[in-house]
Fold:
Amino acid sequence: MSSSLQGPSTCSDISPWGEFLEFVFPNKTLNGPILEVKTGGVEYLIESPFKLIGKGITSVNRADGTNVGSIDWRGSLDPHHRIITLHGRTTQGNKFLQNVSGGLLEETRMVWEDDSENEFYWANGCCHNARDEIIARHVHGKRHLVRGNEPAHLMVDINYLPWLDRILFTTIMIEHEVLEAAPLSGSWL
Structure:
């Protein structure tokens, strides 16, 4: 970005730029409730009847029990084999969230589109729109032997709440890939 007036320059500097709604993942990996921080209310329930790395289907439901969708991991490290179902539409994993390598001096981006083919991307823990404005931030949870666990957080610009389901699904997929690459890293969602 050429000007600081266009928005935050780093993911850690989003609070002065608009209003963000924060969600926390208080339980273990890919299981349990997702809470909205201000109210403490349950927004989503994630169920994964398997260990993080392996076969199984992650199901995402709203607090009222309405199914949002699922991710069938197919026991493969290859995203081509994964099947994503969101709002009744089924897509191959590599088409739902595409890993786009940057050039020699550019960062790798995880790109996704909404139903109107507007493009968004994740890079360095932040989700950006096509104008490179930060619309969401994901902070990995951490495990500490002495201090205890720090849960993962997801902050979403309130103007982008209509995209919350898709932002959540892409967050889950990215976190799953991080954990597959380094399962003992201490990161968790």
Q: What stands out?
A: The helical segments are 93-96, 164-181. The two ends are 30 Å apart (CA to CA). The chain is about 10% helix and 35% strand. Residues 164-181 form the longest helix (18 residues).
